[in-house]
Amino acid sequence: MKSVAGVIALVVAGGLAELLVGPAGFGWPEDPFIAWQLRFPRLLLALGAGAGLAACGLLLQVLLRNPLASPYTLGVGSASALGASIVMIALPAWSVGLGAWLGALIATGLVLALRRRAGLDNEALVLCGIAIALCASAGVLLLHYLADRATSAAMLRWTMGGLSSVGLADGLWGIVPTIIGSLWLLWMIPKLNLLQLGEDWSESRGVSVEPLKMTILIVVALWTGSLVAQAGPISFVGLIAPHMARRSFGFDLRRNAPATLAIGAGLLACCDAAARVALAPAELPVGVLTALLGGPAFLGLLLARRR
Amino acid sequence: MMRAQRLCLGYGTQSVIDTLDVEILPGQLTVLIGVNGCGKTTLLRAFAGLHAPDSGQVTGPAELPAIKRRDQLAYLPQRLPQGAHLSVKELVIMGADAPNRWRASLAALKRTEQALKQLELSVLQDRYCHQLSGGEYRRAALAACLAQGTPWLLLDEPCAGLDLYQSALLMRGLRTWLNADSSRGALVVLHDLNVCAQWADRCILLSQGQIAASGSPEEVLTSDALSAAYGGKLQRFRHPERDHLVVLGPQP
């Protein structure tokens, strides 16, 4: 991803693949239902979820000044899985997405409350996120144990993530939070650029650091929660896209943040298209593929940086 | 003017500054000295609006919200900004404007150019900060403070880790900046008593969270006051050729 042209090519390739790749082969579907009610919403969801998760990863990496931060660092992924699992077992009338969204918000609320009460620094915040993730994972395991086989399988399937969408509304749920979040991110870039240099440094250059940090945590919770509710906890995009952007476009967020959004969108769209044909006619959950590809790719990036 | 009245500062239950009253006047280079842990940095951060008082009051720019405070004071922290990935010019220009602009204003560009020139960094302006020596990077960070265009500068150990020449270069840059406008003032934490003796207009010796002595270097850097604050026997004498004091530390 060496240049702007490379990033644009990735997004265009991902977009075309999402629209044109199907179980029956490559090409624009003749059935308008497949084209406009299945593939187009799926494209919107892939672009929205990819860009959104990447942006949330970037925001947490800036906030915590930790390159290993991802949208799930503060326990949002596990907490949303717990929320979704509770709904599947106990509240079948509710939407699974709503359960996941509430789980994400409650986890972030807990982190904020602990931070406020105990005055946690960045490292303690990460440890706090790990503790919340461990508790939520234990809760999910307990629910698996209590659930019947079918529900347990559904719960497990949900945690693998997926972009199957039916109808434009599904696609809009993915793209609208990302459009709103991205506009906010672009507006905040000068402040975030200063925050990267240190808290005292940015505060004495006009950034109100505490309110900004609080706002970032709330935005990331709402944004990630909305995407996870729709697409499940898809891993690695939020970790790897900011790294790829930083490697090619540097640390200046004026270049890095738009690149992160685009790389995240393009990556997830490409992965989803690949996931649909990898085991055709069956469909591989996209979260499995992003993790399978993301792990080695991340190692590759780290090794390339060492050289 | 910046003023602290009956100021108490601390971290949790640990008290660092205890009922301190002091005024910092414009037109002067005021230097805070004292042993490690006596509260110099904490007091400086309180004047910078970065450490809220446990009790008492700090008046001056510290009272303003961050966005207005940035026009009144620039602060150089002990731990330098993590700007290794930026060029010197990018580091200096970032923060020369209010933090709501994507592109620097013409005024900010001009201040950046002046600050780089003043600290003799113009030739290094396109170099990445990770390629600089410690002294050059510290000067670059000070240039970023100057480019903010504020009447107050608060610097925490600006000479830490610098060799004698870099140290003198930095202090001379600071003096030039101060002399250019009588409404400007600087509050600087220093460890090197000889740098303090050479450049300070006023010197404040902190000991155990309180002011042990305050006045001109001649008045404050006395053998008794220094020995009481630092422990051991410190000696002072006037340099035979240069017109300032020289302080010799205790022999362990």
Provide tags for this entry.
heterodimer; A: 307 residues; mainly alpha; 12 helices; 1% strand; B: 252 residues; alpha/beta; six-stranded mixed sheet; three-stranded antiparallel sheet; 11 strands; 32% helix
Write the layout of secondary structure elements.
The complex is a heterodimer of chains A (307) and B (252).
Chain A: H1 4-20, E1 21-22, E2 25-26, H2 32-64, H3 76-90, H4 96-118, H5 122-146, H6 149-159, H7 168-195, H8 199-203, H9 209-231, H10 237-249, H11 253-278, H12 286-306
Antiparallel strand pairs in A: 1-2
Helix pairs in contact in A: 1-2, 1-11, 2-7, 2-9, 2-10, 2-11, 3-4, 3-5, 3-6, 3-9, 4-5, 4-9, 7-9, 7-11, 10-11, 10-12
Chain B: E1 2-11, E2 14-24, E3 29-33, H1 40-47, E4 55-59, H2 66-69, E5 73-76, H3 88-93, H4 106-118, H5 134-147, E6 152-156, H6 164-179, E7 185-189, H7 193-199, E8 202-207, E9 210-215, H8 217-220, H9 223-230, E10 235-238, E11 245-248
Helix pairs in contact in B: 4-5, 5-6
Summarize the entry for a quick read:
The complex is a heterodimer of chains A (307) and B (252). Chain A has 307 residues and is mainly α. Chain A has helices at residues 4-20, 32-64, 76-90, 96-118, 122-146, 149-159, 168-195, 199-203, 209-231, 237-249, 253-278, 286-306; strands spanning 21-22, 25-26.
